[in-house]
Amino acid sequence: MGLPDAWPEGGRGADVHVHPFFYEPVKLDWRDAHGQRQTSYFVHGGMLSNFPIEVFERTDGKPPRWPTFGGEALGPGGHHGPEKFDVHDTLGLARAMVGTMAPFYDRMHIDDPCTIARTVFVDTCDVNATDFAIDRATQDRLFQSGQDAAKKFLRTWDFGAHQTTC
């Protein structure tokens, strides 16, 4: 699906990964190229991909009017480590299978050089996405980590070069 030009204010920069059941979906009513009313729902989370950067890209073959950036949380040592699952029953096996599938699909997509070139990689300081009760010092450390990663990324980002290469 291509994005309509009348995207809600602030929606283009939405963080669309992590967990789909913690946040309320956003409803978007719009008209397609034929003037037909369409409704789309955007959820904060993914089943197959936790890094759907491609949903923000043009689908008409024209060059992008603005860059699309991704943000990727990195674990200890600056990389994604293998996740371990505790499997004792059918539900645990299903969780492990889905938990293995989604990161694998994302790795195939994120490892594309053109995707890497527009992704800000942020050290999570060993904090999990569902650690909602972290203290202020940890919040500040995470914020600083994200700010440092964004500054480092933006120092070398060149939209024109990206359009030429990718």
Question: What does this molecule look like?
Answer:
It is a single chain. With 166 residues, the protein is of the alpha+beta class. It has one domain (11-165). It contains four helices and four strands; from the N terminus they run E-E-E-H-H-E-H-H. The strands form two sheets. It has a two-stranded antiparallel ribbon with strand order 1-2. It has a two-stranded parallel ribbon with strand order 3-4. A hairpin with a 5-residue loop joins strand 1 (26-31) and strand 2.
Write a brief caption for the model:
The protein has one domain (11-165). The chain has helices at 90-110, 113-116, 136-156, 159-165; strands at 26-31, 37-42, 70-74, 119-123. It is globular and about 50 Å long.
- Number of DSSP helical runs: 4
Structural class by secondary-structure content: alpha+beta
Distance N terminus to C terminus?
Answer: 21 Å
Number of domains: 1
User: Low-confidence segments, ≥5 residues, pLDDT <50?
Assistant: 1-18
The fraction of residues assigned to DSSP E strands is 5-15%
Number of strands: 4
Reported for the largest beta sheet, the result is: 2 strands, antiparallel
Secondary-structure element sequence?
EEEHHEHH
Largest beta sheet: strand ordering: 1-2
Instruction: Give the helix level as a range of percent.
Output: 25-40%
Q: Whole-number average pLDDT? A: 76
Task: Return Rg in Å.
Answer: 18 Å
Q: Tell me, what's the shape?
A: globular
